[in-house]
Design brief:
The protein has 202 residues and is an alpha/beta fold. It has a domain at 1-63 and 171-202: Rossmann fold (3-Layer(aba) Sandwich). The protein has helices at 40-47, 80-91, 96-105, 121-133, 151-163; strands spanning 2-11, 14-24, 28-33, 55-59, 65-68, 139-143, 169-173, 187-192, 195-201. The chain has a 6-stranded mixed sheet. Strands 2-1-4 form a 3-stranded antiparallel sheet, with helices on one face. It is globular. It starts with a strand and ends with a strand. Bound molecules: adenosine-5'-triphosphate (ATP). The site of adenosine-5'-triphosphate has 11 residues, from helix 1. Pfam families: ABC_tran. Residues 2-199 form the ABC transporter domain.
């Protein structure tokens, strides 16, 4: 569990997150929604230690993280396979067989040896999802992972994310108009002006 208690974050004198109290539990999928600038990305950054709170407590064990936050930086002139191979070489947790397994999960196995610069936006998004899940992290943080996906790939990725939720904390920040209708999400958290203003349990 990740426990946030009275979290405040100020950047350059401006309040970005305000009095955030929340427990994120394993086995659940969370939707973070809210208007542009409401603090969704900042909350994700805080959860994976990219930023630290100005005040308040974060209580959590030493988790591993898979993240998509802002643009994923793949080397455009390399293939998907060599990009993922390079990323996997940092932690040395997985081998090429596992990379290929996850490439097939996001429907990219047939394009593994195509240079990323030839990928469409949706394919790049699926590659980013692949990169985030391939090391089977405890916590999956996905910022706007669905934007460019067509209906078929959207539904397949949604089903897939649902299938891996056991023993994992999954938090997805997204605008999508009808996303909250999906049974995918166990809890829907609405943010506004850096605060959590509504919580809905599915
Ligand atoms: N590097 C930064 N320095 C100062 N303020 C920042 C920085 N990055 C973001 N902010 C501010 O933090 C606030 C929250 O931004 P955040 O990116 O978390 O919003 P968001 O809910 O993810 O928005 P969006 O839906 O547009 O992605 C905004 O007011 C933004 O202007």
């Amino acid at each position: 569990m990740i426990k946030l208690e009275s979290i405040y974050k100020d950047i350059k004198g401006k309040n970005i997150l305000s009095d955030i109290n929340y427990n994120f539990k394993k086995g659940k999928i969370y939707l973070l929604k809210g208007p542009n600038g409401s603090g969704k990305t900042m909350l994700l950054r805080l959860l994976c230690d990219l930023i630290h709170p100005t005040s308040g407590n974060i209580d959590k064990p030493k988790y591993s993280y898979g993240v998509i936050i802002e643009n994923s930086n793949f080397v455009e002139n390399e293939t998907a396979r060599s990009n993922l191979k390079f990323l996997a070489s940092i932690k040395k947790k997985i081998n090429m067989k596992q990379i290929e397994y996850y490439l097939s999960k996001v429907n990219l196995i047939d394009y593994a040896d195509v240079k990323v610069k030839k990928y469409s936006l949706g394919m790049k998004q699926r590659l980013a999802i692949c990169q985030a899940i391939m090391e089977e992290p405890d916590v999956l943080l996905l910022d706007e992972p669905f934007n460019a996906l067509d209906d078929k790939n959207f539904m397949e990725i949604v089903k897939y994310i649902e299938s891996i939720k056991e023993d994992r904390i999954i938090i997805i920040a997204a605008h999508g108009f009808n996303l909250q209708e999906l049974s995918l999400f166990d809890e829907i958290i609405t943010m506004q002006n850096g605060q959590i203003v509504n919580i809905k349990w599915n």
